[in-house]
Amino acid sequence: MEVIFKIVRQKQDSSPVVQNYVLDVSGGNTILDCLNQIKWEQDGTLAFRKNCRNTICGSCAVRINGRSALACKENVRSEIARLQQTEISASDANVVPEITVAPLGNMPVIKDLIVDMSSFWNNLEAVAPYVSTRGRQLPEREFLQTPEERSHLDQTGNCIMCGACYSECNAREFDSKFVGPHALAKAQRMIVDSRDHETESRLENYNQGTKGVWGCTRCFYCNSVCPMDVAPLDQITKIKQEILAQKDVPDSVSIRHRHGLVEVVKQGGWINEPQFVLQVVGNYFRDIKGLLAIAPLGLRMLARGKLPLSFEASQGTQQVRALIEAIQLESKNI
Question: How much is the pTM?
Fold first, then answer.
């Protein structure tokens, strides 16, 4: 079949351009096969990364039709089917399908489909992704684990560091301090590893403002694009639960937000916004710095009549409260 490949090409510190290549391919050809065909038969200057061709190394991650994926995993047939669902009528045989391939996001382009992954690796290093056994008596041979202890590492251990989740991360795009879903998924692996003895210090580190777990916007994109089903968002949620389970967890806006949201909804059935802001940001007038930070916004809203001065509870408050309390009780029993 004939397919038009629209390749987003770019040199360092220059604007991207789209270059079209017409290929005669079969539906089973992977996107990487097609990139190879372009390079070998039409344009030897096209630059992209590849290595294993078997969904193991993660080198060939690119954006295919707007989503980050492995070029060696996705094939022409699946991409055309996806396009037919959204853009092209399957019955229109005269339309030549187009597949767009672009470099990963959230990282500067070096050339064409190759990006500079320095920030990706630096943020991984920031979570200290190594099992620490310092302070423990060294065994005669090795630190042993039971099959059950090892099973806790299976999902996160599947990560191949392809960068797909990092590329799609909205939080990373908005906040350069956020370490990224790949790093926090690896952080969760360290927390549940029975051989590691620095769980408390790790949780303290991952609890640091928006650079840690509280920087995640829970957009779910990392889960949706992960080719290995690591589910980074799920791992970030597990770390949050570990932090909140600590008795001496340091007070912060993020912690107050997590605890306060449920309590505010229990009181009125939905969010009483002025009370919620006062509780979370101002810590009931104890966080003067936080209050001063939002005072200009509050004054502008008040001047424009957009600051609600009263609150009407939901008619379903009792049902909402009963549902929340039932879930909380069930959680304690698990």
Answer: 0.83
